[in-house]
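Practice record 12: protein with magnesium ion.
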Amino acid sequence: MIEVQDLTRRYGDTVVVDGVSLSLPERAFVSVIGANGAGKSTFLSMVSRLLPMSAGRAVVAGLDVAATPGDVLARRLGILRQEHGVTARVTIRDLVAFGRYPHSGGRLTAADRAHVADALAFLDLEPLADRFLDEVSGGQRQRACIAMVLAQDTDCILLDEPLNNLDMRHAAAMMGLLRRAVDERGRTVVAVLHDINFASCYSDQIVAMRDGKVVAIGPPDRIVTSEILREVYGIDVEVVLIKGYRTAFFYR
Ligand SMILES: Nc1ncnc2c1ncn2[C@@H]1O[C@H](COP(=O)(O)OP(=O)(O)OP(=O)(O)O)[C@@H](O)[C@H]1O
Ligand SMILES: [Mg+2]
Protein backbone atom coordinates (compact mmCIF):
# COMPACT_ATOMS: atom_id res chain seq x y z
CA MET A 1 0.00 0.00 0.00
CA ILE A 2 2.80 2.44 0.91
CA GLU A 3 6.27 1.75 -0.47
CA VAL A 4 9.07 4.17 0.18
CA GLN A 5 12.63 3.98 -1.12
CA ASP A 6 15.51 6.16 0.02
CA LEU A 7 13.13 8.98 0.87
CA THR A 8 15.17 12.01 1.82
CA ARG A 9 14.53 15.64 2.72
CA ARG A 10 17.25 18.21 3.10
CA TYR A 11 17.19 21.83 4.14
CA GLY A 12 20.50 23.24 2.94
CA ASP A 13 23.13 20.88 4.32
CA THR A 14 20.84 19.50 7.01
CA VAL A 15 19.24 16.15 6.32
CA VAL A 16 15.98 15.81 8.27
CA VAL A 17 14.69 12.62 6.63
CA ASP A 18 17.60 10.45 5.74
CA GLY A 19 17.17 7.73 3.15
CA VAL A 20 14.08 6.06 4.61
CA SER A 21 13.01 2.83 2.91
CA LEU A 22 10.04 0.85 4.10
CA SER A 23 6.99 -1.01 3.00
CA LEU A 24 3.72 -0.68 4.92
CA PRO A 25 1.02 -3.31 4.53
CA GLU A 26 -2.56 -2.75 3.43
CA ARG A 27 -5.38 -2.86 5.96
CA ALA A 28 -3.10 -2.14 8.86
CA PHE A 29 -2.79 0.36 11.67
CA VAL A 30 0.72 1.73 11.65
CA SER A 31 2.01 4.09 14.32
CA VAL A 32 5.00 6.33 13.81
CA ILE A 33 6.87 7.23 16.99
CA GLY A 34 9.96 9.30 17.71
CA ALA A 35 11.19 12.31 19.62
CA ASN A 36 10.38 15.90 18.64
CA GLY A 37 12.33 16.76 15.51
CA ALA A 38 12.88 13.11 14.49
CA GLY A 39 11.38 13.75 11.05
CA LYS A 40 7.93 12.18 11.46
CA SER A 41 5.91 15.08 10.04
CA THR A 42 8.39 15.65 7.24
CA PHE A 43 8.14 11.97 6.31
CA LEU A 44 4.32 12.05 6.26
CA SER A 45 4.30 15.32 4.31
CA MET A 46 6.48 13.86 1.56
CA VAL A 47 4.43 10.67 1.30
CA SER A 48 1.29 12.79 0.91
CA ARG A 49 2.86 15.17 -1.64
CA LEU A 50 2.53 18.22 0.64
CA LEU A 51 6.30 18.61 0.61
CA PRO A 52 8.64 17.87 -2.29
CA MET A 53 11.19 15.10 -1.77
CA SER A 54 14.87 15.94 -2.02
CA ALA A 55 15.54 12.39 -3.16
CA GLY A 56 13.90 8.98 -3.21
CA ARG A 57 10.50 7.71 -4.15
CA ALA A 58 7.13 7.02 -2.55
CA VAL A 59 4.41 4.86 -4.03
CA VAL A 60 0.90 4.92 -2.52
CA ALA A 61 -1.75 2.49 -3.75
CA GLY A 62 0.33 1.92 -6.86
CA LEU A 63 0.67 5.65 -7.60
CA ASP A 64 4.10 7.27 -7.77
CA VAL A 65 3.50 10.24 -5.47
CA ALA A 66 5.88 12.65 -7.23
CA ALA A 67 4.32 11.92 -10.64
CA THR A 68 0.65 11.87 -9.62
CA PRO A 69 -1.55 14.97 -9.81
CA GLY A 70 -2.75 16.14 -6.41
CA ASP A 71 -6.44 15.55 -7.12
CA VAL A 72 -5.79 11.96 -8.26
CA LEU A 73 -3.73 11.19 -5.16
CA ALA A 74 -6.37 12.85 -2.95
CA ARG A 75 -8.88 10.19 -3.97
CA ARG A 76 -6.58 7.49 -2.58
CA LEU A 77 -4.85 9.21 0.32
CA GLY A 78 -6.07 11.66 2.96
CA ILE A 79 -3.91 13.45 5.48
CA LEU A 80 -4.46 15.36 8.68
CA ARG A 81 -1.54 17.71 9.24
CA GLN A 82 -0.09 18.34 12.66
CA GLU A 83 -0.68 22.09 12.43
CA HIS A 84 -3.82 22.16 10.36
CA GLY A 85 -4.73 25.66 11.52
CA VAL A 86 -8.39 25.02 10.82
CA THR A 87 -10.28 27.70 12.74
CA ALA A 88 -12.17 29.42 9.92
CA ARG A 89 -15.75 30.54 10.39
CA VAL A 90 -17.31 27.46 8.88
CA THR A 91 -19.57 24.91 10.48
CA ILE A 92 -18.36 21.44 11.33
CA ARG A 93 -20.69 20.03 8.66
CA ASP A 94 -19.17 22.33 6.01
CA LEU A 95 -15.65 21.47 7.11
CA VAL A 96 -16.41 17.76 6.82
CA ALA A 97 -17.95 18.42 3.38
CA PHE A 98 -14.58 19.88 2.28
CA GLY A 99 -13.29 16.34 2.64
CA ARG A 100 -15.46 15.40 -0.34
CA TYR A 101 -13.83 18.02 -2.56
CA PRO A 102 -11.53 15.60 -4.44
CA HIS A 103 -14.68 13.64 -5.43
CA SER A 104 -17.29 16.37 -5.78
CA GLY A 105 -15.21 19.30 -7.01
CA GLY A 106 -17.38 21.44 -4.75
CA ARG A 107 -20.83 20.30 -5.92
CA LEU A 108 -22.09 17.75 -3.43
CA THR A 109 -24.11 14.82 -4.72
CA ALA A 110 -26.41 12.72 -2.58
CA ALA A 111 -23.57 10.20 -2.26
CA ASP A 112 -21.22 12.95 -1.04
CA ARG A 113 -23.78 14.04 1.54
CA ALA A 114 -24.13 10.46 2.71
CA HIS A 115 -20.34 10.27 3.24
CA VAL A 116 -20.47 13.52 5.24
CA ALA A 117 -23.32 12.24 7.40
CA ASP A 118 -21.49 8.96 7.91
CA ALA A 119 -18.26 10.68 9.01
CA LEU A 120 -20.19 12.97 11.38
CA ALA A 121 -21.91 9.97 12.93
CA PHE A 122 -18.69 7.91 13.07
CA LEU A 123 -17.09 10.69 15.14
CA ASP A 124 -20.13 11.40 17.27
CA LEU A 125 -20.33 14.93 15.91
CA GLU A 126 -24.00 15.06 14.92
CA PRO A 127 -25.03 17.24 17.88
CA LEU A 128 -22.28 19.73 16.99
CA ALA A 129 -22.58 19.61 13.19
CA ASP A 130 -24.10 23.08 12.78
CA ARG A 131 -21.76 24.81 15.23
CA PHE A 132 -18.99 27.02 13.88
CA LEU A 133 -15.42 25.83 14.38
CA ASP A 134 -14.62 28.82 16.57
CA GLU A 135 -17.55 27.89 18.82
CA VAL A 136 -16.31 24.44 19.81
CA SER A 137 -13.47 23.17 22.00
CA GLY A 138 -10.00 22.26 20.72
CA GLY A 139 -10.71 18.56 21.06
CA GLN A 140 -14.05 18.88 19.25
CA ARG A 141 -12.30 20.78 16.44
CA GLN A 142 -9.69 18.01 16.26
CA ARG A 143 -12.46 15.42 15.90
CA ALA A 144 -14.08 17.52 13.16
CA CYS A 145 -10.80 17.62 11.23
CA ILE A 146 -10.47 13.85 11.47
CA ALA A 147 -14.09 13.51 10.27
CA MET A 148 -13.13 15.63 7.25
CA VAL A 149 -10.26 13.27 6.42
CA LEU A 150 -12.51 10.20 6.87
CA ALA A 151 -15.20 11.74 4.64
CA GLN A 152 -12.59 11.87 1.89
CA ASP A 153 -13.09 8.08 1.86
CA THR A 154 -9.55 7.12 0.88
CA ASP A 155 -7.85 3.71 1.16
CA CYS A 156 -5.01 5.31 3.00
CA ILE A 157 -5.29 7.77 5.88
CA LEU A 158 -2.28 9.59 7.32
CA LEU A 159 -2.79 11.37 10.62
CA ASP A 160 -0.14 13.53 12.21
CA GLU A 161 -0.81 13.46 15.95
CA PRO A 162 -4.55 12.73 15.81
CA LEU A 163 -4.73 12.60 19.61
CA ASN A 164 -3.75 16.27 19.99
CA ASN A 165 -6.18 18.03 22.32
CA LEU A 166 -8.16 14.90 23.06
CA ASP A 167 -8.92 13.91 26.66
CA MET A 168 -8.31 10.32 27.77
CA ARG A 169 -11.84 9.21 26.92
CA HIS A 170 -11.85 10.77 23.48
CA ALA A 171 -8.30 9.62 22.78
CA ALA A 172 -9.31 6.03 23.58
CA ALA A 173 -12.45 6.44 21.48
CA MET A 174 -10.38 7.83 18.59
CA MET A 175 -7.97 4.90 18.69
CA GLY A 176 -10.89 2.47 18.77
CA LEU A 177 -12.46 4.22 15.84
CA LEU A 178 -9.29 4.22 13.76
CA ARG A 179 -8.88 0.52 14.56
CA ARG A 180 -12.44 -0.02 13.26
CA ALA A 181 -11.61 1.95 10.11
CA VAL A 182 -8.91 -0.69 9.49
CA ASP A 183 -10.81 -3.79 10.61
CA GLU A 184 -14.30 -3.00 9.30
CA ARG A 185 -13.57 -0.72 6.37
CA GLY A 186 -10.23 -2.08 5.20
CA ARG A 187 -8.36 1.21 5.45
CA THR A 188 -4.66 1.64 6.00
CA VAL A 189 -4.08 4.11 8.82
CA VAL A 190 -0.69 5.65 9.55
CA ALA A 191 -0.70 7.80 12.67
CA VAL A 192 2.05 9.76 14.39
CA LEU A 193 1.62 9.16 18.11
CA HIS A 194 3.48 10.37 21.17
CA ASP A 195 1.59 8.05 23.49
CA ILE A 196 3.57 4.80 23.32
CA ASN A 197 0.91 2.87 25.20
CA PHE A 198 -1.84 3.74 22.76
CA ALA A 199 0.57 2.79 19.96
CA SER A 200 1.30 -0.48 21.76
CA CYS A 201 -2.36 -1.47 22.28
CA TYR A 202 -3.77 -0.54 18.89
CA SER A 203 -1.06 -0.87 16.23
CA ASP A 204 -0.22 -3.70 13.89
CA GLN A 205 3.16 -2.13 13.19
CA ILE A 206 5.21 0.60 14.81
CA VAL A 207 7.78 2.64 12.92
CA ALA A 208 10.33 4.18 15.29
CA MET A 209 12.28 7.17 13.96
CA ARG A 210 15.32 8.97 15.25
CA ASP A 211 17.33 11.72 13.55
CA GLY A 212 15.56 11.26 10.24
CA LYS A 213 16.09 7.51 10.10
CA VAL A 214 13.92 4.52 10.86
CA VAL A 215 15.68 2.77 13.75
CA ALA A 216 13.14 -0.02 14.18
CA ILE A 217 9.98 -1.28 12.54
CA GLY A 218 7.78 -4.16 13.58
CA PRO A 219 4.83 -5.24 15.72
CA PRO A 220 4.46 -3.67 19.20
CA ASP A 221 5.93 -6.80 20.84
CA ARG A 222 9.22 -6.12 19.13
CA ILE A 223 9.28 -2.32 19.33
CA VAL A 224 7.93 -1.48 22.78
CA THR A 225 11.04 -2.53 24.70
CA SER A 226 13.23 -0.60 27.11
CA GLU A 227 16.16 -0.93 24.70
CA ILE A 228 14.40 0.50 21.66
CA LEU A 229 12.64 3.24 23.64
CA ARG A 230 16.01 4.25 25.08
CA GLU A 231 17.44 4.38 21.59
CA VAL A 232 14.49 6.43 20.31
CA TYR A 233 13.94 8.85 23.19
CA GLY A 234 17.24 8.70 25.09
CA ILE A 235 15.59 7.94 28.45
CA ASP A 236 15.17 4.86 30.60
CA VAL A 237 11.65 3.52 30.42
CA GLU A 238 10.37 0.41 32.13
CA VAL A 239 8.18 -1.89 30.06
CA VAL A 240 5.78 -4.36 31.66
CA LEU A 241 3.09 -6.62 30.27
CA ILE A 242 -0.42 -5.54 31.30
CA LYS A 243 -3.38 -7.53 30.02
CA GLY A 244 -1.16 -8.85 27.26
CA TYR A 245 -0.01 -5.41 26.08
CA ARG A 246 3.49 -4.09 26.47
CA THR A 247 3.14 -0.94 28.55
CA ALA A 248 5.83 1.67 29.10
CA PHE A 249 6.36 3.61 32.33
CA PHE A 250 8.66 6.42 33.09
CA TYR A 251 9.60 6.86 36.75
CA ARG A 252 10.98 10.03 38.17
N1 LIG B 1 11.20 24.45 6.75
C1 LIG B 1 12.20 23.92 7.48
N2 LIG B 1 13.46 24.41 7.38
C2 LIG B 1 14.48 23.87 8.07
N3 LIG B 1 14.33 22.83 8.93
C3 LIG B 1 13.10 22.31 9.07
C4 LIG B 1 11.97 22.82 8.36
N4 LIG B 1 10.89 22.09 8.70
C5 LIG B 1 11.32 21.20 9.61
N5 LIG B 1 12.64 21.33 9.83
C6 LIG B 1 13.45 20.50 10.73
O1 LIG B 1 13.32 19.16 10.36
C7 LIG B 1 13.40 18.32 11.50
C8 LIG B 1 12.22 17.34 11.47
O2 LIG B 1 11.02 18.08 11.67
P1 LIG B 1 9.61 17.34 11.78
O3 LIG B 1 8.59 18.40 11.84
O4 LIG B 1 9.53 16.35 10.68
O5 LIG B 1 9.78 16.59 13.16
P2 LIG B 1 8.71 15.70 13.95
O6 LIG B 1 9.33 14.35 14.16
O7 LIG B 1 7.39 15.76 13.30
O8 LIG B 1 8.69 16.43 15.37
P3 LIG B 1 7.45 16.78 16.37
O9 LIG B 1 7.27 15.55 17.24
O10 LIG B 1 7.99 17.91 17.18
O11 LIG B 1 6.24 17.14 15.58
C9 LIG B 1 13.43 19.23 12.72
O12 LIG B 1 14.74 19.30 13.21
C10 LIG B 1 12.98 20.56 12.17
O13 LIG B 1 13.58 21.62 12.87
MG1 LIG C 1 5.59 16.54 13.81
